[in-house]
Design brief:
binds iron/sulfur cluster, 2 domains, Alpha-Beta Plaits, 2 helices
Length: 136
């Protein structure tokens, strides 16, 4: 099976060789699609993982033991844009740059081509304007 996950690292875990351990100790085949990690700060990794379900479950269990949270990546994001109040809350979680505030108009700009369907924006929007379709 092949799936994508977003990993969120607490500041104390950003120096850990997590992907090496997932590969070496759990036999996962990992493709790093995007990384945003700075030592001592919260970090994010977008990974594509190929593995058996058993090994994947063990690897995800290891992440939890290291206080690293993970979320499966959605296949598609739908944005119901008209009711948007341009509060900017969703831009704080969008590390791909698909959601940004226009500095002049102070309005939200959504660039679907940049969206990696990480699944982080739905819970960030107070109006729940994003919905996700997950892969089976
Ligand atoms: S799912 Fe949302 S937060 Fe993630 S990249 Fe797409 S627009 Fe940004
Ligand atoms: S969080 Fe929701 S309401 Fe706020 S700017 Fe983003 S889409 Fe618009």
């Amino acid at each position: 099976m092949k799936k994508k996950f977003v990993l969120t690292f607490p500041p104390e875990s950003t120096n850990e060789p997590v992907t090496c351990r997932l590969i070496r100790d759990f036999g996962l085949d990992i493709n790093i699609l995007r990384a945003e990690i700075n030592a001592g700060q919260e970090g994010k990794l977008l990974l594509e993982i190929s593995s058996t379900k058993e090994n994947l479950d063990k690897g995800l269990g290891y992440l939890e033991s290291r206080m690293i949270t993970w979320e499966p990546v959605a296949e598609k994001i739908h944005f119901h844009q008209d009711p948007c109040i341009h509060c900017g809350s969703c831009t704080a979680v969008c590390f791909s740059g698909a959601l940004e505030m226009d500095r002049l108009t102070r309005e939200l700009v959504f660039t679907p081509e940049k969206c990696i369907a990480c699944g982080l924006c739905p819970s960030a929007c107070p109006l729940r304007l994003f919905t996700l379709e997950f892969a089976v």
